[in-house]
Design goal:
alpha/beta, RNA-DNA hybrid ribonuclease activity, single chain, six-stranded mixed sheet, RNase H type-1 domain-containing protein, RNaseH_sf, Nucleotidyltransferase, domain 5
Length: 202
């Protein structure tokens, strides 16, 4: 049974600024994230890189879709041991090479590595020579594309590209899928096509 003194202690605890701060932190409104279709005539590339823990085994992946959210092409490959940042930039570079190979002129590039997107958009230089080498190659390709925009999306809206990057860990050789995607990405692709909102906790 709660005595008066215990009730008062409970009230003081609930009214404590620290408890109030924790409560507000856990109850902030979540961010709504949804993949968006490109405009008619545009092709959208979502790309991603993956690097696994202590081993640093890395892979890349990406997916191209049209204005109806229809699958055009997907790619994945293992790239050996490296960092997640290098995997991200390598995934974008490979995607752009495929843009040129397929003759797509109006292209929307989207990834969940915010820093990388800012480096590309603002044409910044980086200290890491390997990353800068990839960026230099990317900066040479982009002007060859008729129209090109680069944006960041939270990982909750980049789930198909993430699946392709995860597939890359399982591959001995680079792989490209044309017209028909692997079954593992189909449910997520349908979610994206339907405009499903995924909540991201702040």
């Amino acid at each position: 049974m709660l005595t008066i003194s215990k009730i008062l202690r409970c009230q003081r605890l609930v009214q404590s600024p620290v408890v109030g701060l924790l409560y507000r932190k856990w109850h902030k409104e979540a961010i709504q994230v949804a993949w968006q279709k490109p405009k008619i005539g545009w092709t959208k590339l979502n790309f991603d890189g993956s690097s696994k823990g202590k081993t640093g085994e890395a892979s890349i992946g990406g997916v191209f879709r049209n204005h109806n959210a229809e699958f055009l092409l997907g790619y994945a490959e293992s790239i050996g041991q490296t960092t997640s940042t290098i995997a991200e930039v390598a995934a974008l570079r490979r995607g752009l090479e495929l843009v040129l190979e397929n003759g797509w002129g109006d292209v929307w590039l989207e990834g969940d590595a915010k820093t990388l997107v800012e480096i590309i958009v603002k044409r910044r230089r980086v200290k890491c020579p390997e990353i800068q080498r990839h960026i230099n190659h990317i900066n040479l390709i982009i002007p060859e594309v008729n129209n090109c925009i680069v944006t960041h999306i939270y990982r909750e809206g980049n789930r198909v590209a993430d699946k392709f990057a995860q597939l890359g860990h399982q591959l001995e050789m680079p792989q490209i899928w044309r017209d028909i995607p692997p079954n593992v990405v189909l449910p997520i692709m349908q979610d994206d096509a339907d405009g499903k909102i995924v909540l991201r906790k702040r």
